[in-house]
Write a structure and sequence with these properties.
Order of helices and strands: HEEEEEEEHEHHEEE
Shape: globular
Radius of gyration: 20 Å
Strand content: 25-35%
Helix content: 10-25%
Structural class: alpha+beta
Number of strands: 11
Largest sheet: 8 strands, mixed
Number of helices: 4
Amino acid sequence: MRTKTTLMILGAMLFLFFGLQGCAGMGGDPTPYEGYTNVYLQNNIHGYSKAARGGKTEYIASYANYVQPDSGHFFVPLNTAVSVGKYRGGFTLTRLDNGQLIYFEYRSGNMGGMSVEEYLNLITGPQKAYLKGLSATDRKGIKEGRVLSGMSKKGVRMAWGYPARHKTPSLEDNVWTYWRNRWVMKYVTFSNGKVTKVQ
């Protein structure tokens, strides 16, 4: 009898522990990632906002790049200074100009096994991204957070972010896959290194 009671108490404690861990995924101040407390975005970050408890708004972004979600779309511009924090579903980005906190979903398996730190080294840097040499079309697309016909691959990467590797294994590919939202994909087609179609 005593063993059964002990097991029940232990089970309840584990349930509470893991349940609370799950609830703690969002909210509160994230623990900073050492070495990423004042870095600059090397591409635009797209995402969506949603209502949270207490009338607050949560901002969600993803390695899948939600470039045109149905509602609540936002994007953080290239070269915005951010601080990176730890988050069990990936990491957080906090804008240093206005304090906006973004929960960034990350799955290493869908990025070819790339660790969070390796991915952060692609999308953030200690210096602002260098735009010299980019065409007027590239600059327009980056500024507006859109992909335009005639943009280069570098321009698209800066405007929409790195495509997820499980659908776009190499940036040498002539079709890059992004996500409009969690369910609908978008495809950017290149010819001779320039965008010819977005669908």
